[in-house]
Amino acid sequence: MADITEFNRKHWDSAANTYDSEPWQQQILAQIATEIQSRLDWIGVDWVKKDHGSEGAEDAAAAAIASDERDRQEKKSVRVLDYACGPGSMTRVLSPYATYFRGIDISANMVQAYNARATAQGYSPAQMSATVGDLLAPQDAASCSTISGPEFHDFDVAAVGLGFHHFVDPTLATKQLVQRLKPGKGVVLIIDFELHEHEHGHGHGHGHERVRDAKHTVAHHGFVREEIEGMLRDAGCVDVEYVVWEEPLRFGGGGLEGQEKTVFMVRGRRGA
Length: 272
Known about the structure:
7-stranded mixed sheet; globular; 9 strands; 10 helices; alpha/beta
């Protein structure tokens, strides 16, 4: 199974420049964004609210309340860990609602793409940056030591978007993610595929020439509800909730033309 990690590293290094270049890929990312943004309250994080001006206030008291709320929001810090971040798809979805972002990925090329996009969007490295790292690596490994500092802990949310099925040990990954959350407050958010008995392969394609290699990056062909909820509870989460999206993800290329995947979203809060 250890070989899967290396397959993932090589595959995503080669896919970094074309990860979201096709219209069908962009449609999938847009659907993910819509689903997340429609459930911001459900996720359970005290997000930054940027629409808090005093326009339309009917009197001085209302204007003062709006001004106080604006000051409070401007001082608020909301910290996001985007694990298996790729070029930053989850980060971009959550960027209007948080203030501090750290991405971690085993692929150096994906990390480079993440940081290039963050810079292009006007963020400083202190605000938004990614680092090569692996939460499943031994504690003394270089890929683990690079993400051991305080900047990689104490998060309000740790998110994994469609990366969980690539993890050799998702149970350990969940525990590691939860340990990086604020006790009693931080939320882990996982988006991935439900398991169906008829599914035997998963290309996750980013171009026909890479379909075979992509299949070697998959450690799990999906998850059942009881399994994923158990992982969160065993990792110390409370308030675990699970939803299935009404609309599946529809693949339009990469050897998966016409295929659909049912997607779930699960969240849990780290216990005190």
